Amino acid sequence: MSARLAVLLSAIAALFVLITGAAAAGSNHHQTDPLSTGCASNASTIRTGSVGGINYEIRYSAACGTNWVRVPALSGTVYMLIRSDWGGNAVGGYQTGSGGSHWTPQVYAPGSTCITYWVQRIGNGDPATGNIRIC
Question: Which of 17, 21, 72, 92 could share a disulfide with 81, CB 3.0–4.6 Å?
Fold first, then answer.
């Protein structure tokens, strides 16, 4: 019986190291660029929307446990902000483009951690999404 208990405890310890190691690795990606960290690879779009003629996406990387706002084809100026209930500061800011994708830094929000985002087109009356929460 003690051999079985030793195997079980060893398996539990290995699982704990795996889980806490993954969480630490993901939290290291908070406020970083999803493309340069590799988190954008195999990420999925969890929500799409449009404000003032600008289409946006909320992206999630299961591998990194992170979210970010992306505008796939920005023409003009947009203000994007995203925050995670995990903690840390909201990230984002103003971006101006004449085509091509633009995105915020990513926030650590593993699994079902809630996020709040804001997307606003600058100009033409400054239409905005307001604070939108996803859990």
Answer: 92
